[in-house]
Design a protein that fits this description.
- The protein has helices spanning 11-30, 53-74, 82-108, 119-136, 145-170, 178-195, 212-234, 241-267, 276-281, 285-289, 300-328, 337-358, 361-364, 368-371, 382-390, 402-431, 455-463; strands at residues 31-33, 110-111, 114-117.
- It is mostly helical and 474 residues long.
- It has a domain at 3-39 and 53-237 and 402-463: Ammonium transporter AmtB like domains (Ammonium transporter fold), CATH 1.10.3430.10.
- A hairpin with a 2-residue loop joins strand 2 (110-111) and strand 3 (114-117).
- The longest helix is centred in the C-terminal third of the chain and has 30 residues, at 402-431.
- The two termini are 32 Å apart.
Length: 474
């Protein structure tokens, strides 16, 4: 391939300039401070420590670590693609959050002609960013930074509209984002990689390998994600006991999936050894599988079982399903996002539906109508007045039964998957435009295409036999 066709010298600066001008203009006209950040709203009655910053910032900081350090290190597992994995994650995440502040803000914080900006907006934007980075995993090593920025530019609106429609019109319980984050990100990424299918890579690539140091760096990313995942799952739950349960369930689910991952890795290896890819990915499955029911009274034992079940499904998916998708269905899922976010997301959604069907006032007390807000009686119902005596300020709901709410959860699952897949396919066709610096097959998984490399990089290349292949997949 002509080097000029993948050169970033004009493409990347031009795209960044256009995006920054768009963002600057939109921020100038449509973004202002919310009441907690606006000096005009403060007076001698204001108590500084009551500011929402002190409640929300710890969660913002934790998710920041997951986004920039956790994902960044995790995606640096390839031997000759570590720069790109970490740095393109950095670039894509930064832009995604900037763009999501506007797009997410329009749907959630728009009033009086302005988006009112506070730390909670940043947390919502981080969730949209996480969606983009999960999808990025499906096309890792086979896309340019220009393509990734365009992908983020398109995916954030697709995600925001889908999330808004699901939460506003279908109205579901999804505290940990199993539906609107994990399933959407997974099937959007699969849609993109389906369109960007490379037949010459269906049996792998000579540089699609790991190294001792790249695997260590990737496990470091796993550890950051593992440690901060309870914040991710609990940041937007109701404060108090709901948030408390979310932290407990996430930790228990992660713990059980980690133990199970080590056992499965050893038993499925002919020599009884551990595989680093399992430690890097499968250990995180429990954080996803508890997501849909993370704030519910499912019991610690159920959270433990969900971690084991999710880990097992994720492990088997990496071993058997990912190769099948690549060879038979034209879906080259580079990081196996369908296993860690798709399969486990479906298990999580199923568990959430079961928890909804089993929820009773005997178990939850009157707070059931706070957790399952759409089951709360509608305005004017005498039962709502009685409940407000026990829970002042309880919002009116839709009066749904448990069975009705479960059906709406199912509708949300299928709607989200369909919207994500369509959005991913459309985005994939856009990314195929020749002006977006897509690397040739031979140049995939190679930092040298986009970076000035240190001299020791070339010594590493020379050490690698052309036929060596050590895929991330177990």
């Amino acid at each position: 391939m002509d080097p000029s066709s993948t050169s970033l010298r004009v493409r990347l600066p031009a795209l960044v300039l256009v995006l920054e001008v768009i963002l600057l203009v939109l921020y100038s006209f449509f973004v202002t401070y919310d009441d907690n950040a606006n000096a005009k709203m403060q007076n001698n009655m204001t108590i500084p420590m009551d500011n929402s910053l002190y409640r929300d910032y710890p969660y913002f900081a934790d998710v920041q670590v997951m986004i920039f350090v956790g994902f960044g290190c995790l995606l640096a597992f390839l031997r000759f693609y570590g720069f790109s994995g970490m740095v393109f994650n950095f670039l894509t995440a930064t832009f995604s959050i900037q763009w999501a502040i506007l797009v997410q803000g329009y749907f959630q914080f728009y009033q009086d002609g302005k988006i009112h900006l506070g730390v909670i907006n940043l947390i919502n934007a981080e969730f949209a960013c996480a969606v983009v980075l999960i999808s990025f995993g499906a096309v890792l090593g086979k896309t340019s930074p220009v393509q990734l920025l365009v992908m983020a530019f398109l995916e954030v609106p697709f995600f925001s509209v889908t999330e808004w429609a699901v939460l506003k019109y279908i109205r579901v319980n999804d505290a940990g984002g199993s539906i609107v984050i994990h399933l959407f990100a997974c099937y959007f990424g699969l849609g993109v990689t389906f369109v960007l299918y490379r037949p010459n890579l269906k049996n792998g690539h000579s540089k699609e390998i790991t190294s001792y140091h790249s695997d260590i760096l990737s496990v470091l990313g796993t550890l950051f994600l593992w440690v901060f995942w309870p914040s991710f799952n609990s940041s937007l739950t109701l404060k108090g006991d709901d948030q408390h349960r979310a932290v407990l369930h996430t930790f228990i689910g992660l713990s059980s999936s980690t133990m199970t991952a080590f056992a499965l890795s050893a038993v499925f290896n002919k020599k009884g050894k551990l595989t680093m890819a399992d430690i890097q990915n499968v250990t995180l499955a429990g954080g996803v599988t508890v997501g849909a029911s993370v704030d519910m009274m499912i019991s610690p034992a159920a959270a433990y079982a969900l971690g084991v079940l999710g880990c097992t499904a994720c492990f088997l998916g990496y071993r058997y399903l990912t190769p099948f998708l690549a060879q038979r269905l034209r879906i080259q899922d580079q990081c196996g996002i369908h296993n860690l976010h798709g399969l486990t997301g479906l298990i999580s959604c199923t568990a959430g539906i079961c928890a909804i069907l089993l929820a009773t006032e005997e178990t939850y007390g009157p707070s059931m109508y706070e957790i399952f807000a759409h089951r709360s009686p509608p305005e004017g119902d005498p039962k709502l007045l009685a409940l407000r005596q026990l829970i002042p300020g309880l919002k009116a709901g839709l009066g749904r039964s448990a069975e009705e709410q479960a059906l709406y959860q199912v509708a949300a699952i299928f709607s989200t998957i369909a919207a994500a897949a369509v959005g991913g396919v459309v985005t994939g066709f856009v990314l195929k435009l020749p002006c977006l610096a897509s690397p040739a097959d031979d140049d995939c998984f190679d930092d040298e295409l986009f970076f000035h490399m240190p001299t020791d990089f070339y010594s590493e290349v020379k050490k690698t036999p052309s036929n060596e292949h050590d895929s991330k997949l177990p």
